[in-house]
Design a protein that fits this description.
Layout lengths: L3 E4 L5 E14 L2 H10 L13 E15 L4
Amino acid sequence: MEGAAWWSSANPSARSVLVAGEARTVTEPHAVERPEAHSRTTPRAGTPRNVWITVTPGRVTGRRIVVRDR
């Protein structure tokens, strides 16, 4: 699975997180309601997507990225 980075202009740092584990497509209607209600992201490809993936984490790694003044 791919990770994600979060950025805040108030705090010039970000986190990059990588989750490795077993992934499966969420197909049960009741299980799709929660991610659809709480999602704050949009697809990068620019068109709507209606597939949700859940990951049972086996390993989680990451790093903090700090931007320093030039």
